[in-house]
UniProtKB/TrEMBL annotation:
Name of this chain's protein: Sigma-B regulation protein RsbU (Phosphoserine phosphatase)
Transmembrane segments annotated in the record for this chain: 7-27, 47-68, 80-99, 111-131, 143-165, 177-194
Subcellular location: Cell membrane
Membrane topology, record value: Multi-pass membrane protein
Every PPM-type phosphatase domain range: 237-452
Biological process (GO), any one: cell wall organization
């Protein structure tokens, strides 16, 4: 008896390996995946009939002699075929298995019941699959329960066609339990692998869809920030250049610049808490509010005050944004600015001096209503420049988790501060990436550089 069990176990393992190959072929072929999910075309049915019919034949070839009977996993082919492909596939696989079993012959009672059991296995499993109340592929437990119930039904066929009740009892006593166990194992292995591979395919499709949607979202997001930069000779008084590189497909950094009137130029940079789609949506709202609140005679502190109150209302997710807002009077070079918890900007003087501005930082927007922001001023001489940035620059890390730091940023500005705004911006990004040396970008990187030439467009140092 122990020898029989050991032999049966080896047979089940051997057959299960073939089943895994079949499962792989079925699921990796797009056509057959459609069949498993009940969406295949008629011409594809023949493929599965042959596959599961072959499995029934293969199981018969590897049948194990047990005293007066044989233990094989023939029923697995039509059962699986019916459960995944419906009545037509189940019947087709059953007929192939039945034809092979009929060709082998045997005792009259045994081969008649065996042939009929193979055909009915495909028919019954196919009908069950077609009219079950659940959508999708049959689950592992569901398939195992069906297999057990059907094997008990097949035992009844043996009693009907056996020459005598005694002969049927002796046969069933020897083979039915190994048959039930073997087919249970075979069916469960198949549906386990199929279920996992279908889930893998679905996850891949979902991932591709999400990636596509994020790409569209990034395109929309980037379309919201200015892409045309004011530079001489189109604009005589100043030049501006900015760059935004998200750590993910979409991010929460923002920059913006626009004329409030003929003499006042507003420029803004911000960093929303978090990353991804929520941050990008909050960024879009912030940018819209800044432009809506800006106006003739409205100070930078007032812009932040009103924007902050709007962001605080209904902010159930408690998101916030650090933000620097400046307004340049292009006639005088006076810059009025306010800081809402953002990184301190750098000022590059035309004589090569680099200094960090030290404004009162205030609090980030979206945290507390009715907060009064300070309004501060500096004066730009012709060819002076302001460099504002987000913490993705100074906190960029290399493979040793060392940060780029304000010191490295200041050194970079010192080296390239006399260049055009575009070159300064690109040089900083280049230095940051060289420092990171391939380490993953952990935060959005945004830089805006504004250089003032004076009301007459004095470009003496260019």
């Amino acid at each position: 008896m122990q020898n029989t069990i050991d032999t049966l176990t080896m047979s089940v393992i051997n057959t299960a390996c073939v089943m895994m190959v079949i499962a792989y072929l079925v699921i990796r072929t797009g056509t057959n995946l459609d069949m498993l999910e009940k969406t295949a075309r008629k011409k594809d049915i023949a493929i599965l009939i042959v596959l599961f019919g072959f499995f029934s034949i293969y199981a018969g070839i590897n049948a194990i002699p047990v005293n007066i009977g044989l233990v094989s996993l023939r029923h697995s082919g039509p059962i699986i075929g019916g459960l995944v492909g419906g009545p037509v596939v189940g019947l087709g696989a059953g007929l192939i298995g039945a034809a092979d079993r009929l060709f082998q012959g045997g005792l009259i009672g045994s081969w008649k019941s065996a042939v009929l059991a193979l055909v009915l296995a495909g028919v019954f499993s196919g009908i069950y699959s077609k009219y079950r109340q659940k959508d999708g592929v049959v689950g592992v437990k569901e398939a195992v329960v069906f297999t057990v119930v059907y094997e008990l039904f097949a035992a009844g066929l043996t009693f009907i066609f056996a020459p005598s009740i005694e002969a049927a009892f002796i046969l069933e006593k020897q083979v039915r339990l190994p048959l039930i166990i073997g087919n249970m194992v075979a069916v469960s292995i198949f549906f386990f692998f199929v279920k996992n591979m279908i889930e893998e395919r679905r996850n891949k499709n979902i991932k591709e869809q999400i990636e596509h949607e994020l790409t569209v979202a990034r395109t929309i997001q980037m379309s919201m920030v200015p892409k045309v930069f004011p530079v001489p000779p189109d604009v005589q008084e100043l030049e501006v250049f900015a760059i935004l590189e998200s750590a993910k497909e979409v991010g929460g950094d923002l920059y913006d610049f626009f004329y409030i009137d003929d003499d006042h130029f507003c420029f803004v940079i911000g960093d929303v808490s978090g990353k991804g789609v929520p941050a990008s949506l909050f960024m879009a709202v912030t940018k819209t509010l800044i432009q809506a609140k800006a106006g003739v005679g409205i100070s930078s502190a007032d812009i932040l005050y009103h924007t902050n109150n709007e962001l605080c209302r209904g902010n159930d997710e408690t998101m916030f944004v650090t933000l620097f807002c400046g307004i340049l009077d292009i006639r005088t070079g006076e810059v009025e600015f306010s800081n809402a918890g953002h990184n301190k900007p750098y000022l590059y003087r035309k004589n090569g001096l680099v200094q960090m501005l030290n404004p009162q930082r205030g609090i980030a927007l979206g945290i507390m209503e009715d907060f009064s922001f300070s309004n501060e001023k500096i004066h730009l001489s012709p060819s002076d420049a302001i460099i504002i940035y987000t913490d993705g620059v100074t906190e960029a890390m290399d493979n040793n988790n060392e940060m780029f730091s304000e010191e490295r940023l200041e050194n970079t500005i010192t080296k390239v501060g006399n260049a055009a705004a575009k070159e300064i911006t690109q040089s900083i990004v280049t230095e940051v990436k060289a420092f990171a040396n391939g380490a993953p970008q952990s935060d959005d990187i945004t830089i805006l550089v504004l250089r003032y030439f004076g009301s007459g467009g004095d470009m003496e140092n260019e």
